[in-house]
Amino acid sequence: MIKNEINTAIQSKTINRYVLGALYKDTEGLLYGFNKKDKTLQFNPSAYKFLLKFQEVIFRQSRNESYSNEVIINHIENITKRKSLTEYRELLLTYSESRCFYTNATLVKGKSKKVVDHFISWSFVHGDNLWNFVLTTPSLNSRKDSKLPSNEYINKLFQRNDRITKVTDQTIREEFAEYKKSTVEKLYAYAGINGFPTGWTP
Predict the structure, then answer these.
(1) Please, which residues bridge with residue 106 across strands?
(2) Which of 6, 9, 26, 154 gives a 20 to 30 Å CA spacing to 146?
(3) How far is Cα 108 from Cα 56, in angstroms, rounded to an integer?
């Protein structure tokens, strides 16, 4: 009887508020949502996809005390191989832009004269997503590096994404199936919080 009362008190006053609620608030709902009444969690699609992809590395190696967090992160980075962005470049050229996203200058013909840039650095998002890709020149891409473009550019990115989501191409639809403006806004903010230089302009 007393044990049940203690369990109920802990669940209602401690776990919900300081465990589930605190992490939910700290991450602004980026990782999961939860139902206090049913005491259930629901991972956001992107977080769930990430955990499924790297579950072996995260959970198996996290139980091994000889592995530090840095080692685990390095393992994930090694698994997440950079793939060719040629397909994305062609999709952007076909359905969106033949100009530099940042300067609006016409991109010169020739594959080597235009490159795909991760708007929010690959070093932070660790993924290749069309909603995060823009076209620019090799030199500008190099100068930008892992910096975060200024606010005017993220607004331009949202406008571009709104246009491209109206395309009927199946690949485009698949790429934007889990796209949410609010999620990108959070990733953009968190990248800045995590030390990526902000306010970059050409």
Answers:
(1) 99
(2) 26
(3) 44
Tokens of 24: 């939910």
Q: Which residues pair with 41 in a beta bridge?
A: 34
Closest CA to 98 of 135, 46, 62: 135
- Of 96, 110, 94, 108, nearest in space to 119 by CA: 96
pLDDT digit string, tens, across residues 125-182: 878 889 999 999 999 999 999 999 999 999 999 999 999 999 888 989 988 988 899 9
Token pair in block for residue 101: 């996203």
**CA angle, corner 36, sides to 33 and 41, nearest 5?**
35
**Nearest one of 108, 103, 187 to 148, comparing CA atoms:** 187
CA atoms within 13 A on the CB side of 156: 16
Nearest to 118 by CA among 157, 71, 151: 157
What phi and psi values does residue 29 have, to the nearest 5 degrees? Answer: 75, 10
Has residue 78 got a pLDDT over 90?
no
Q: Chain centroid to CA 193: how far?
A: 14
For 167-184, give one letter per residue: b (16+ CB within 10 A) or e.
Answer: eeeeebeebbeebeeebb
